């Protein structure tokens, strides 16, 4: 089944910049909570799915976040950046650190 992009990227990025991602990964087991529930966890990267749903994580937990819907991510956004880039620009090397984004 093809993942058809069904959202406006600029509007989604703006919403993430204002409100945070839909959910945030908080541990290596993949537990995700709403941005309002995080306690001290830093969001360094946000993965955006084909339907506009988003998942944020610290650099340390980025690979854990990526694995949740690896085939459904279409964009990735670094905290502090204005524009998201295509997921192919992110290299999931297991460390969560990416030199291209």
Explain what this protein looks like in three dimensions.
It is a single chain. This protein has 101 residues and is an alpha+beta fold. The protein has one domain (9-87). Helix content is 18%, strand content 22%. The chain has two helices and six strands. It has helices at 9-19, 62-68; strands spanning 23-25, 32-33, 45-49, 54-57, 73-78, 85-86. A six-stranded mixed sheet has the order 2-1-4-3-5-6, with helices on one face. The relative contact order is 0.21.
**Structural class label:** alpha+beta
Tally the structural domains.
Answer: 1
What is the spatial order of strands in the main beta sheet?
Answer: 2-1-4-3-5-6
**Which ranges are low-confidence, i.e. pLDDT below 50, for 5 or more consecutive residues?**
none
Estimate the mean pLDDT confidence. Answer: 88
Task: Tell me the radius of gyration.
Answer: 12 Å
Please report the number of helical segments: 2
Distance between the termini: 28 Å
Quantity of strands, as a count: 6
Largest sheet: 6 strands, mixed
Strand content: 15-25%
Percent helix = 10-25%
Element-level helix/strand string:
HEEEEHEE
> What's the shape?
globular
